[in-house]
Amino acid sequence: xxxxxxxxxxxxxxxxxxxxxxxxxxxDYFEKIYNIHIINGFTNNxxxxxxxxxxxxxxxxxxxxxxxxxxxxxxxxxxxxWKNTKFLCTMKFDNQRRSFQAFQRRxxxxxxxxxxxxxxxxKEDGFYYSNDEIYWRKDFNWTLN
Length: 145
Prior knowledge:
Layout lengths: L1 H22 L8 E9 L9 E7 L4 E7 L4 E8 L6 E8 L2 E9 H7 L5 E7 L2 E5 L6 E5 L4
InterPro entries: Self-incomp_S1
Main location: secreted
GO biological process, one term: rejection of self pollen
């Protein structure tokens, strides 16, 4: 009798966990693709581009890009629950540098949801984030001299 009770409890727990996995944010558990976009939001910089260089936590080097006004650099990231994928990008504009995490799985699975699009608009006063290119939120400052 005791073994039957334990078996039913374990079976109930397994069913409960499977229900949670299927209901609560499936992106947390299964492999998903996220699209990261970096957009040059500087104004009047036609003679000096924004230089972007990104590398992943797995040492995948995406190379450098020189972005003119409104140009975009984008790539896709395959992410899973078991791996905290990160992309560090270094920006250079007019001899000033700033690095930031363009993608960090633990941070971005919630805020990139449901579109799985992560947009960064780099402007004179800082880095702005959006998941729909409509509503932008300033994440941190970058004040140029």
